[in-house]
Design goal:
Blueprint: E1 4-7, E2 10-13, E3 17-18, H1 35-47, E4 52-54, H2 63-72, E5 80-85, E6 87-88, E7 96-97, H3 101-115, E8 120-125, H4 134-146, E9 150-156, H5 160-169, E10 172-178, H6 187-196, E11 199-203, H7 215-223, H8 228-239, H9 252-260, H10 268-274
Parallel strand pairs: 3-4, 4-5, 5-8, 8-9, 9-10, 10-11
Antiparallel strand pairs: 1-2, 6-7
Helix pairs in contact: 1-2, 1-9, 3-4, 7-8
Length: 275
């Protein structure tokens, strides 16, 4: 992996890893089926040159961060862990917004402890809690930044209007929204991030598999002797210089396949055919 991207003063390789699927069940709840396998997956990502890993307090909850530290700590120089706060998990099927300051402070202290970090490089508000003013939630992250516990602040699942509101309360360096070849709902947010020069992290970059079933993706994959997943990731890399894809998987074989997508070069004609 030679291509890099800047997130404020951080420089990381252009393809990251979404660690959520290290917990290999559909509800991202509890423990992985095989802890040692989860550790091997995370270590393999690092071996392949991945130096940006995305996780969240809510994955498990709390399990995913613990797995990352177990597998990868002490972290090498330049290795960036991004995590998220502000979701409650009262039961396996629940992902409830909770942006109360006391919850976010608890999330932060827990994440620092589990990840064995003194400072989190990229701390993201997972979503907006409609019951709590956004400025109040972000204020906790700004205070943590001033205290040296957070290096940079990001947001997730925000529209353009919400992003602009957030930028009045904090220095926002990244946005993480659902986006893929098959799901362009955040196209306007991506364009706004390009204009601002801030990173855009697409979650579900393979569209939960939907992008792999698109006929034009399958045709190009066949012609380029690649897989549909590699084409979908290569499209994201070519789509915008501010995009940092974070494909996630619980499979080492799929991880290796995804990382290899960084070597694919799509022509203008290829991109036109996919669009």
């Amino acid at each position: 992996m030679t291509s890099t991207i800047r997130i404020a003063d951080l420089t990381v390789n252009r393809l990251g890893f979404g660690a959520m699927r290290a917990i290999d069940n559909g509800q991202i709840w509890g423990e992985p089926s095989d802890r040692k396998r989860a550790h091997r997956l995370l270590r393999r990502a690092m071996e392949l040159g991945v130096n940006f890993v995305d996780t969240a307090e809510s994955y498990g909850p709390q399990t995913d961060e613990t797995l990352i530290a177990e597998a990868l700590h002490p972290y090498p120089k330049g290795f960036v862990i991004a995590t998220k706060c502000g979701l409650a998990r009262p039961s396996p099927g629940r992902w409830d917004p909770d942006g109360r300051p006391e919850k976010l402070r608890r999330d932060l202290e827990g994440s620092l402890k589990r990840l064995k970090l003194e400072r989190i490089d990229l701390y993201q508000l997972h979503t907006i809690d409609p019951k709590v003013p956004l400025e109040e939630s972000l204020g906790v992250l700004v205070d943590a930044q001033r205290a040296g516990k957070v290096r940079h602040i990001g947001v997730s699942n925000f529209n353009v209007k919400q992003l602009e509101r957030a930028r009045k309360a904090a220095t926002v360096v990244s946005v993480q929204n659902r986006y893929s070849l098959a799901d362009r709902g955040s196209e306007d947010v991506l364009a706004h991030c390009e204009k601002l020069g801030i990173a855009f992290l697409p979650w579900y970059p393979l569209g939960a598999g939907a992008a792999l079933k698109v006929s034009r993706v399958k045709k190009l994959a066949e012609r380029m002797h690649a897989t549909p997943a590699q084409i979908a990731i290569a499209w994201l890399l070519a789509k915008s210089p501010v995009i940092l894809p974070i494909p996630g998987t619980g499979s080492i074989a799929h991880l290796e396949e995804n990382v290899a997508a960084a070597k694919l070069k799509l022509s203008k004609a290829d991109l036109a055919a996919l669009d």
